[in-house]
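Per your request, structure below.
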């Protein structure tokens, strides 16, 4: 089951997606896709660091369906 991490940017409330470097992007297509629970858990751990630094709020993962590599 593929999942990505998302949150709201604290500065403006815009929905952002965690990229492969652990940063945040408004572009859904740049989101890092996690194929297992351990990878998502690690991503949410990095997200918690962003929450602690007041960059984002309400970080969580959700299931996505990959189609044609997207």
């Amino acid at each position: 089951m593929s999942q990505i991490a998302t949150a709201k940017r604290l500065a403006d409330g815009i929905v952002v997606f965690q990229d492969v470097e652990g940063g945040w992007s408004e572009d859904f297509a740049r989101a890092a896709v996690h194929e297992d629970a351990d990878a998502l858990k690690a991503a949410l751990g990095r997200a918690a660091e962003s929450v602690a630094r007041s960059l984002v709020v309400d970080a969580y993962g959700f299931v996505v369906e990959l189609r044609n590599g997207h």
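The longest helix spans residues 37-52.

Regards,
D.
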